[in-house]
Amino acid sequence: MDHSPSAVRAHYAARAVVLLAFAVYIADLARRDALIYYLTPSLASWVKLCSLPMALMALFLLLQTAGARREALCGCEHRLPATPLRSALLYGWFALPLLLGFLLPDRALGSAAAARKGIELSYAGAADVHLSGDKEGNGRLPFTSLADRLEGQDEIVVEPALYSETVSALQLYSDRFEGNTVVITGFMHRDPLRPADNAFAVGRFLVHCCTADALPLGFPVYSETPISLPPDTWIEIKGRLELAPGGEGQTIRLRAESVKALTPPSNPYIYAAT
Amino acid sequence: MTVIKLKLLPLLPVIALMAAVVLGPALGPGLTGSVTLQMFKTSFIGLLLEALPFVLVGALLSSLLQVFVSDETIARFLPRNPVAAIAVSCLLGLIFPVCECGMIPLVRRLIQKGMPVHSAVVFILAGPVLNPLVFGATLTAFAGHPEFAYARMLLAFAVAFLTGLALWMTVRQSPLRLSFTSRRQAGVVHRLRGGRMASLFVHASDDFFEMGKYLLAGCLLTSAVQTFIAREALLAAGGQPLGSYLFMMGFAFVLSLCSTSDAFIAATFTHTFPAGSLLAFMVLGPMLDFKNALMLLALFKTRFALFLFFLIFALVFLGAVLSSLWLH
């Protein structure tokens, strides 16, 4: 398929615009620290680098449109779209994610997304594919050393860096931690099927490599005084660990002593510790 | 009048894009809309960005090969013994990591330069999977579970090798469509401004747009499935012992994803589908999908192509089911 030099030039120009737009989009996300809404921090650092080759590709494409001699440009082997309609479809197709990206704001996944995906209340059971687990491979249960460390503490604070591991340890060895005080933060999540002012969950999204596969995890909380904070409020719960009545096996929950609303952190996601 | 208007059509997305870049921050907050749209957008952009580095590296590498390595070099590498040639062809992807999208024209040129069909087909099958880039992507997508990456490589090797053997034993005449052998040799000289550097980046952009459109479709479809289809339906499909395999293989066929990015798509289904079906997805996808099938049908005679499709499908299915015994 041989295209006229001006058609080839037009294609090169359109491609340069698309590539440049991608480069600008990624650079802008990086500048605003907004990549965490889509990727884990480690992947984000690789994606940030993508702006450079894309900008270079755009640059060399533009170079062809500006200066190349008329007879040197050929469309062969470049597999360019044959008709204007096809060209519109191709570049419109590439414009789609960019339009979504530039027009819609960046939003963290919250309670509604958790309800849609189905929140997991049992960390260890649900997240076993993601959790790398304790490094002790000698047949012992995972997180034993972490559990030992936690047992010694007066007040167990669930830190974001070891969030899912800490909660898993608490769930797996719940008999050792019954009655302990735990401090945990996350978004307020209510069961859409059984909304109640006394029972809710503290939710967090565990991200593995990109937020598309983020797993919503929830820690059940019971409060004697009804709490009417709306879902998605960022809360800090301080309470005592107790074994939940009913249900199969040992499910734990926190009996809330204090519920505080906080400003959400810049990065609300948790990641598996490597 | 209509002719002029049609020609301006391609300008529309470009203008819309530039408008979005400029006006986005002002218009954005008003367009927040539903949670589902937000979820869809987050998922779509996330998947796309995640796969982007791999697609770019694939495009640049493929372009490097096209610009700096001559086809004769590849053909000279092969040993005489057919079985050895098949085995070596399986591993060619380790030194020539080319995405499946760039494969078909490359292999066409190789066959014309004398590479035996069984080796060429094996290269088409194994090349897109058995290379360090795809291995790395699979490791990243299934972080903490390297067995997925190893199983993928092993299964791909087995399927490609067995297919090659089957072809060597059964195929007697050249399966190439006549129209291909008589086509003008594609030894075009490009005099692009900027010399070889320009060639490198311009060809890379070709590959990027070629592969990118399928990647976009894959991310779009996957995000739609993840966002709009009720989890129960997915769980039901994933719960079928063998049906889940067929579903995942069908999904891989339809999505036509690049082998560097399909691992990320597969990983999003870790909770709903069994490990073996994800493996089938990751091995069938690069070897046989809608786009590849069309290209293979264009390259080879129909009967041969259909025989090939059957071989690949059956071997991947059996292999994945068998590996699931060991994988989980």
Quick description:
Chain A is of the alpha/beta class.
Characterise this structure.
The complex is a heterodimer of chains A (about 270) and B (about 325). Helix content of chain A is about 40%, strand content about 20%. Chain A contains eight helices and seven strands; from the N terminus they run ααααααβααββββββ. Chain A has helices spanning about 5-30, 40-65, 85-105, 110-115, 125, 145-150, 165-170, 175; strands spanning about 155, 180-190, 200-205, 215-220, 235-245, 250-260, 270. Chain A has a five-stranded mixed barrel. In chain A, a hairpin with a 7-residue loop joins strand 3 and strand 4 (about 215-220). In chain A, helix 6 packs across helix 7 (about 165-170). Chain B has about 325 residues and is mostly helical. Chain B contains 17 helices and no strands. Chain B has helices at about 1-10, 10-25, 35-70, 70-75, 80-95, 100-110, 115-125, 130-140, 145-170, 180, 195-230, 230-240, 245-255, 260-265, 275-285, 290-300, 300-325. In chain B, helix 6 (about 100-110) packs antiparallel against helix 7, helix 7 (about 115-125) runs antiparallel to helix 9 (about 145-170) and helix 8 packs across helix 9 (about 145-170). The longest helix of chain B has about 35 residues, at about 35-70. Chain B is globular. The termini of chain B are far apart. Residues about 180-190 of chain B have low confidence and may be disordered. Chains A and B meet through helix 1, helix 2, helix 3 and helix 4 of A and helix 1, helix 2, helix 3 and helix 11 of B.
